[in-house]
Recover the amino acids of this structure.
């Protein structure tokens, strides 16, 4: 699978199955990481203020990149927080109007992303005629963040949320070794876990090296990605069966004669959820950034916090939770399943998946583990 050419969030616009309508959990991730973002941006503004007292001027432009921005209501949330934080710091420090930095924001995602909707939202949210706002110039940058995206030493701040657990490719040579699975499953041999771990190490190290080239010395980066709380991903007590249940749903379709078993055996997810100490080791080994913070937080797998944000006093039952989780996963992965299996099976697949999730949630209370990383370019 050509991940960069196939992977895209579901589909352009805001239809029922779109990513725009099924990205509440990503909103929770952004919301829970907000204190890290505000603290980092505030610290950067205070640092610029100290520098300006020495050299007599503020930087003319503060350049921000949001990598893996996708589309929908979450896309501009981080930008708004950054602008609001800078504005608050400017007000608190009583800066003169001509000292206010202009802000340049680069929204990055794969070329398949729905940038048309993103830029329409930008036009509405950041009207340059608004005299009460800092001047903010937003543009789209299409391309994989596993390649170079920006000129050398041009960025002050980089943000990425719920993106870096996507790998640049499926690890090589695992198809015939991982039969009946689409990721690291309970029946996967140890070499499958090793292959995924090594691919993530390569990708994340490459990501850090490239960002180091593009960022200014002292530039900051905040990364939020789905991870795990235990060193080994298949410890039974903490096993998180997101993909195992989807693999079981595919095998149900095999039993019904709707999917070829060989097609299931040749499909694997380009995804890896790291343990936080793996992140620490890679950052320290790559040695382009100093590690400021490395923390985790949890979000319920049935998305009850996300639904509560949207509809106060709404009570979920397990069938509804199963449907919500299934729609959430479908919005992020449908393009890959259509590419590999064809469009005809997709509705059936995710209906079966919803049933499996609902049954699982009757007996378990699984959680997403999210890792937040704050680092500074050395």
């Amino acid at each position: 699978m050509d991940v960069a050419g196939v992977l895209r969030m579901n589909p352009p616009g805001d239809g029922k199955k779109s990513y725009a309508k099924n990205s509440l959990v990503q909103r929770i991730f952004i919301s829970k990481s907000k204190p890290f973002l505000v603290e980092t941006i505030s610290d950067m503004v205070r640092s610029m203020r100290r520098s300006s007292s020495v050299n007599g001027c503020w930087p003319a432009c503060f350049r921000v990149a949001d990598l893996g921005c996708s589309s929908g209501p979450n896309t501009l949330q981080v930008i708004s927080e950054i602008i609001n934080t800078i504005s608050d710091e400017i007000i608190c420090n009583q800066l003169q109007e001509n000292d206010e930095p202009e802000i340049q924001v680069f929204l990055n995602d794969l070329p398949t992303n729905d940038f048309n909707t993103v830029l329409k939202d930008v036009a509405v949210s950041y009207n340059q005629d608004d005299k009460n706002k800092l001047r903010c110039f937003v543009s789209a940058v299409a391309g994989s963040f596993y390649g170079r995206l920006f000129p050398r030493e041009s960025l002050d701040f980089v943000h990425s949320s719920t993106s870096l657990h996507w790998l640049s490719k499926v690890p090589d040579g695992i198809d015939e070794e991982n039969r009946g699975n689409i990721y690291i499953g309970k029946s996967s041999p140890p070499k499958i876990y090793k292959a995924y771990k090594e691919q993530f190490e390569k990708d994340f190290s490459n990501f850090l090296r490239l960002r180091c080239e593009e960022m200014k010395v002292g530039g900051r980066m905040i990364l939020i990605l789905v991870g795990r709380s235990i060193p080994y991903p298949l410890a039974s007590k903490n096993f998180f069966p997101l993909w195992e249940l989807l693999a079981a749903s595919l095998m149900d379709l095999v039993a019904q004669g709707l999917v070829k078993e060989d097609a299931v055996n040749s499909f694997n997810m380009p995804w890896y959820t790291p343990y936080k100490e793996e992140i620490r080791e890679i950052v320290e080994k790559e040695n382009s950034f100093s590690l400021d913070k490395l923390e985790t937080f949890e979000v319920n797998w049935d998305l009850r916090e996300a639904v509560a944000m949207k509809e106060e006093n709404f009570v979920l039952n397990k069938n509804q939770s199963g449907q919500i989780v299934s729609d959430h996963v479908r919005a992020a992965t449908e393009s890959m399943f259509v590419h590999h299996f064809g469009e005809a099976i997709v509705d059936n697949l995710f209906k079966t998946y919803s049933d499996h999730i609902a049954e699982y949630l009757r007996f378990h209370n699984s959680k997403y583990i999210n890792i937040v990383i704050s680092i500074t370019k050395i």
Remarks:
- The chain is about 45% helix and 15% strand.
- The two ends are 36 Å apart (CA to CA).
- The beta strands are 61-67, 102-109, 136-142, 155-161, 215-227, 289-300, 367-377.
- The CA atoms of residues 209 and 288 lie 7 Å apart.
